[in-house]
Fold each of these.
Amino acid sequence: MPKLERPSIPGRTISVADKGAVGDGVVLNTAVFAEAIGELAENGGGTLTVPAGIYLTGPITLRSNICLNLEKGAVLSFSTDPADYPVIDTNFEGLDVRRCTSPINASGAHDIAITGEGIIDGNGDAWREVKRRKVGDDQWKMVMKRGGVLSDDGKVWFPDEGYKAARATAGTLNKPSDDLDESEIITFLRPVMVSFRECENVLLEGVTFLNSPCWNIHPLWCKNLIVKDIIVRNPHYSTNGDGIDIDACENVILTGSTFDVGDDAICIKSGKDEDGRRHARVCRNLVIDGCTVYHGHGGFVVGSEMSGGVENIAVRNCTFLGTDVGLRFKSTRGRGGEVKNILCENIRMKDIVTYAVIFNLYYAGVAATEMSQGGLVEEVKADETTPDFHDITIRGIKCAGAAQAVYLNGLPELPLRNISISDSDFAAEKGVEMHNSVDITIDGVKVNGKEV
């Protein structure tokens, strides 16, 4: 992994206020942001500053050699009108799909940055479905006041009938039937909030990202990415409310950042099934250090979309407080892909709802709190669609409370192998459980004070 440098941004600066932006949270400033970025791009780049205020806007497209700097007190508040977000060809959950344009986006750009002390608010409540079981009575009443429609059994709220119809056809793919009119199901095609696709030399620093329509931050097929001292927040009930999904990227440093989200917090991906294997983009060379995760389905997660492969990752000095799972590795038959050369060390965990450490290759697309441990037992022949997890080292774990310390659940046709867990202490209701796993090393591991 090369030494990563900050993006090259020229010294030129433009303020959106000087271009006529109004920070009252009411006036739509989409055209002002586009004009200012266009002017910077025409002159070789520079920094677009956003002073204190609340700036309502539609999508913002970053271009090469441009930094978006949010000063203290600045809030970017994204429009809740789906018509402001044209449907485009993109990639989501590892599949080539059609989705709405992301509120902040860039494609094929180099040397781009989002910095400062401000806040980026995706107003995602207008887009997402809400499951009744995930919210209390008062929150459910607030959701119902928005209008929308309920599922036939009354257990899920949808923004409109189009979303409900699309959801009924999408299954676990999150991809609706091609027979449906995009204009009528546009809320279902909700975007990730920050989408950087095939970009190089990217920096995210200092900013707070919150309330995204779907995933919060999604770098896809990017190279040389620095993420430093950011805060990522989504409501605990937010469907697909991931923190950051580092998807088939190379050379990434993520440090000093905090996550409190509705789905997986720090997630590593590389495409899904046939689409992922066809793109064949490996996610490799990542350092994740000194991050904190509060609510989330998983603190650090690999998968389940990992068909292009994941390799060479170090996760160090992180703290997970109250996540559903601590270290979460997941995949299933049909994915293919190889996950290898991963080190997780010096991780502190407290009040983990289910597993401190889990490898589950029978992942069924649900949170670990809902997962059946029964799994499938039939044996099939290993081929290109079989996920392969091996050569993974976990050490120095301190876990103060979990339902289970370690759960390894591989596939009979290609077991988990060369997994090492050492020098770790777990306080947990259950200890270590392994299925379809070979060459597993457990050394210096204690559960409730007793050596495993």
Note: The longest strand covers residues 338-360.
Amino acid sequence: MKNIFLIGGILTIFFNSLTGIILTNYTSFNWIIANSKLTSIVLHPTNPNLWYLCGKNICFTKDNGKTFAYLKKNKKTENLFEAKRCDLAFDHALNGVLIAHQNRGNFRYEIKSNENIETETRINAAIDVHRTKIIFDSKRHRFLIGGIRLYSLINDQIQQLSYPNFPHNQFMHDDIRVITFDIQANILIGHDGGVSTSENGGAKWFNINGCGLNITEVYDFDFSEKTLFAGAQDLSSFQLNRKNNKWTHFSNLYSDGGSCILKNDTWYVMKSLQLVNTTNQGKNFNYPYVPVKTSRFNPELCLSDNTLFYAGKQLWKEQNGTWKNLSPMIESNYDVTGLIIQKNFMLLSKADPVWRSEDLKGKLFRSSNKGKTWQDITSNFKAYAYREISDLTSKTDLSHIYACIGSFDNPKGNKEKVYESKDSGNTWKNISYNLPNIPCTCITFIDKIGLLLGTDQGLFILKQNKWVKFRSELPEVPITKIRYKYGKLIVSTYGRGLWILK
């Protein structure tokens, strides 16, 4: 059996047999891979010596990788085929079909010979430079095209197989990364939310992330004594009824849910470039007016004294269905990355590091009067030079605050990960101690537990002057949010779902 792997820009071929393994490295592939942005390798169905390397171009070899050539656009020209992203599949008659995303749109091509591409046809399928995939469905004699959504292709007829079931579906997408079949020829698709399957050719889909396959990429969540409400990649927003531990997805596969807040019986979530809410547990959604539209991944929703705050390009406060700008003097070109709102005290950090260490301003602001006036205290936080605050938190004593940094450090420089201030941000102390050189994503101080830090490699807790891993059963994946209420600690991860500690 022959397996092909792409490792570090070098194509590696393992020949497995009963007698052992022979390893061959084709280092000459480095230039091909870099030039073609190689994303997939397709073997000819009947000729194991014929490979196609797909990406920006189509490169092929007829002699098991000894020599290579590029496919030409057609017989009449020497121009090579180029695209933003392309992929290739063969049908039962060994006809090759190529799909490609180009500046001019999405197209279908036929491969009439090993050297030439023919018959360009524009197709109405949502694929793009990041997600372009085609596979042949031998049971139904059709091609399946994946990317932003899933389509079937029979001759030149395109049929969409996955449909958003959420309003404004032009913004929804599946982010399909892989398409395959099980032994019964049911379709399986892998996407940012996990794995889904269809037993009837794509007419109805089921999410099969159960059995420990908790792949969900959660950006934020909030919970009450009865309900947990979360915003996640592709799976959109979902609810957990904590009486019977049953998950209910408001919209399966489609759209990305971001920051979440439960305010009494109204649930808010950032979704599809704007804020939405539901007052009936997800049966219907409303689109309340917000003064600015921004990415669902960046804004922060905050609830203080039962008042909703929205930190997008600036900080806004909800008042009887309208919004008041609490930070008109703060420039609005960058997104808010960290926010503390407690009583009269507010602390706000903005994205984009300062690239001149002698000119630290415009990125960290403090207010002691509920946002009536703001003080720029960026110069107090020297670590802002060439870095970015990713989150803020405070103790019950609001003068005692913490900030974490969301970037890698120069291996030869100082460790700049977590900072502590005991005077409301006037002076800061580096408490990074023994932390590894990884981005920090979120930070939370909990009276009964201590200072918790989310990183790209899991959750840490500060014990005296040492950071240690908190709960070894947690996966070493990016932690996106930490919340503690009702005697329960819940953390969300980017890729491994939600985890709860009672």
Note: Residues 29-36 form the longest helix (8 residues).
Amino acid sequence: MQIAFFGSSLVSAYWNGAATYYRGLVRALYARGHRVTFYEPDAYERQQHRDIEDPSWAQIVVFPATEDGVRRAVESARGADVVIKASGVGVFDELLEAEIAGSKTSDNLVAFWDVDAPATLDRINRNPGDPFAPLIPLYDIIFTYGGGDPVVAAYQALGARDCVPIYNALDPETHHPEQPDSRFAGALGFLGNRLPDRERRVEEFFLGPAAKLPGLQFPLGGAGWGDKPKTANIRYLDHVYTRDHNAFNCSPMAVLNISRESMARYGFSPATRVFEAAGAGACVITDEWEGVELFLEPDTEILVARDGGEVIDHLLSLTHQKAREIGEAALRRVLAAHTYAHRAAEVEAVLEGKAARGVAS
């Protein structure tokens, strides 16, 4: 299939946590014989903070962040077999959603890919006049970044023809064990941008435990934390480029996953970094959310904390040997069941099944 994919960015993870998700899926779809043209706006200085050059496994089209740029990009994508609009492109999202829904023909499929379904659904529920709501039934398929049955039911209630979660996963060519790096050494590392619906949870699960364990070191990576009050044992690294993610995950005794509030509330939404860290053989401590055991087994493949106090308990009881055993078990599990090759096969089955049943006619 020829696939046109409109997203925030494939080549830059700068203020763009979905980048590695997009990369893993697009690379795996390419390996299965599909060809993706990825359309991304020239916005938020992402092109000036690229992590990768244009890859061999996707064609990159950077369009001007203007209304005319959007319309021209959508027009150029009209010949594709599948046209996908991801949530959170960042500029002219409403226009893109309407234009791509309107590009439906008898010869194509149009899909919406929601990389933050809980936030989208909460927004629509707060505002019944949300302009995206009437467009939902016009898309052949709604893919989501996760969310399980709660998100599927919520989208179906809004008229979605079909809704399929495609969970985060591991790209073993990109994320794998590496030698530790002293820049990232410590007891517990956290990597994530400062976002309004995660900041309170970062205070609870990371900043608070660091303050109560002054003898341990806590490396912190991600944009936006520079002016946040931090104890002296927190080593702030600012934006960590994806080329350094493996070293970051392999260097502390454990790494922390903190869900955004909406993701934690809906559950069934493992963050990309869970699989990246597991793929590097890291011992992951995650905040609690429903469905974690569907992906990694608590206590043997991942450690779960209900609050900052349990993060402290894990750190005080964890040894380097135990951390290594948990990380190795997690790596075995994600390689066996949670790679982007697995996810791409799911996407392919959905798209080809719909085409075969004449959904596009």
Note: The first strand starts at residue 2 and ends at 6.
Amino acid sequence: MRILIAEDDPVSTLVLRSTLERIGHEVLAVRDGVEAWEYVERDAAQVLISDWMMPRMDGLTLCRNIRKRLDSPYVYVILLTARQQRADRLEGLRAGADDFLGKPLDRSELIARLQVAERILNMQIELRQRTEELERMHDALSSQNALLAEIAVSDPLTGLKNRRFFREQLDAWLALSARQGTPLSLAMIDVDHFKSYNDSFGHPAGDEVLCTVARILRGSLREPDLAARYGGEEFVVLMPGTDEVGGRAAGERLREEFSHQKWQKRPVSASIGIATWRPEFKTGAQLIDAADKALYRSKALGRDRVTHHDELTTHALAGMM
């Protein structure tokens, strides 16, 4: 072990050093508590053998300082003293001493007490290693749990959020919009002629289209927006704080992104339906249904276009007149 001797008596220091080195320990020696404290602060010793009475800083003060170092490696402290009174030993223990050696020094007793120190220090090292291993395991488990939690709410192909997570978030945002009277728009996006694309080029090529759609959506999102794969070739985007005008503009930007994208096999377009929250929409399902109806009209009008749900009402009124 690395042993530090703090002793102002040169004869006693010489006897201790020679004995300790003879039995294989690495030894440092200083003449007072201040010098000893400097070595302890550098974690230079595992065991301190300190005289009780020393100049500048005595053994008890040195012990107390050492025990204040809560986050540092443990230092096993043996106090050298000729004091044999029970009160003196108790005072030393309260100061933080682990053991005592009487003066004059008994070599056999020194060896025995160092064996005790070594057992305790080895146990503490093992305990620290186990604690560190448990902390590593805890960190790994936390990371794994976080990954599993993310997997549970994500679409495995595109990496976007899945339908279940989207519906949960939609209901929460809808309740917030109803409570605060803030706008909320939803876009439903369908890849045009996706089945024929799959039939012509195969499912791997179709999967690549879906992943490209996901990248387009991620690149177009604002901070509060939420995109998800709703099912098959259908995607949805929730846009908090976005009114009818903003919702339609966002839909047009997405449609143009599809047009400008360099697709591998052939051009790909999208039909988009937009719905904006109104007081009559009591549930998320009603808002989705409104966007879905707008999407259906985009498809009926020839695809590759954006329709807002409000347009359906306008057209219906025009047809009645």
Note: DSSP finds eleven helices and ten strands in the chain.
